[in-house]
Amino acid sequence: MKSHTLIQALLIAILSLVLTACNKQEQAIDDLRSFSEQLKEESADYTEEDWQQAGEQYNLLIENIDQYEYTDDQQKEIGRLKAVCIKQMSKGAMKLLRQNMNTISKQLEGALEEFMSPDTTQPDQDDQEE
Question: What's the whole-model pTM score?
Answer without folding.
Answer: 0.66
